[in-house]
Amino acid sequence: LVAPLINRNAIKAEYLTAGAKQIQAVYNYERTLVNAYIEVANQLSKIQNTAKSYGLKSQQVDALNESVQISNNLFSSARADYMEVLLTQKDALESKFELIETKKQQMNAFVNVYRALGGGWN
Fold it and tell me: What is the C-alpha separation between 7 and 52, in angstroms, rounded?
């Protein structure tokens, strides 16, 4: 019966420690929520940016494919040399590679959003 009176300071210290740990847990939880929100917002922004970039690169690929067709027609009519045809084909291929890379970045951003929202894998 007398033990709580004797250990009063120890009990009070344990109580204050438990309160501090509870406040620390709340702060850690809030920090985790903010970090998760920032991560999701960043990935959603990346998806939008890569979608815009994909549209522009798609237009570039279309224009370069048309340019290849034109250079082939000019070569057929002997108004351009074959080096020009090869250079336009090279530019078109590089543009297609960039288009594929942009789509890959966009798909990776989708995966990262899924992961940030608690995706279903370890």
Answer: 68
Q: Say how far apart CA 38 and CA 86 lie, in whole Å.
A: 46
**CA torsion angle 15 16 20 25 (round to 10):** 10
Query: Structurally, how many domains does the chain consist of?
Result: 2
Closest CA to 112 of 53, 52, 45, 39: 39
Using CA atoms, how far apart are residues 36 and 43, in angstroms rounded to an integer? Answer: 11
In a domain, 10, yes or no: yes
3-state SS assignment for residue 118: coil
Structural domain span for residue 56: 47-117
Q: What is the pTM of this model?
A: 0.72
79-114 pLDDT per residue, tens: 889 999 999 999 999 999 999 999 999 999 999 898
Tens-digit pLDDT profile for residues 48-83: 999 999 999 999 999 999 999 999 999 999 888 999
3-state secondary structure 41-85: HHHHHHHHHHHHHHHHHHHHHHHHHHHHHHHHHHHHCCCCCHHHH
